[in-house]
């Protein structure tokens, strides 16, 4: 997954849930990624929200559990 430093990326997970990923480069190789999984009601209000942060290396496979989801991806930060 290609991410841009300090820019949110939204991934639809299905079932009305989305995951917002926000990367922040800490140095030349390490990145902190904030993940927020949310679902909304029919009128657009947040119904459920789970947030976590992980620190990993750009280009290294990552597995993270958040809310009811387990996500696996390889972040590449530009």
Describe the protein in words:
The chain is 0% helix and 67% strand. The protein is mainly β.
Blueprint (SSEs and pairs):
Elements: E1 2-3, E2 9-14, E3 17-25, E4 30-40, E5 46-57, E6 62-66, E7 69-73, E8 76-77
Parallel strand pairs: 1-8
Antiparallel strand pairs: 2-3, 3-4, 4-5, 6-7
Main features:
78 residues, mainly beta, 4-stranded antiparallel sheet, two-stranded parallel sheet, 8 strands
- Helix and strand content put the structural class at mainly beta
Specify Rg, calculated over alpha carbons. 13 Å
Which strand order spans the largest sheet, edge to edge or round the barrel? Answer: 2-3-4-5
State mean pLDDT (0 to 100 scale): 91
* N-C termini distance: 11 Å
The helix-strand sequence is EEEEEEEE
Query: What about the largest sheet?
Result: 4 strands, antiparallel
Helix content: under 10%
How many strands?
8
Shape by Cα distribution: elongated
Strand % is over 45%
């Amino acid at each position: 997954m290609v991410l841009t430093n300090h820019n949110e990326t939204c991934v639809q997970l299905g079932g009305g849930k989305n995951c917002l990923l926000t990367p922040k480069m800490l140095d030349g190789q390490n990145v902190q990624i904030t993940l927020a999984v949310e679902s909304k009601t029919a009128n657009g209000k947040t119904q459920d929200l789970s947030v976590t942060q992980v620190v990993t290396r750009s280009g290294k496979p990552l597995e993270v559990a958040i809310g009811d989801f387990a996500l696996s991806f390889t972040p590449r930060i530009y």
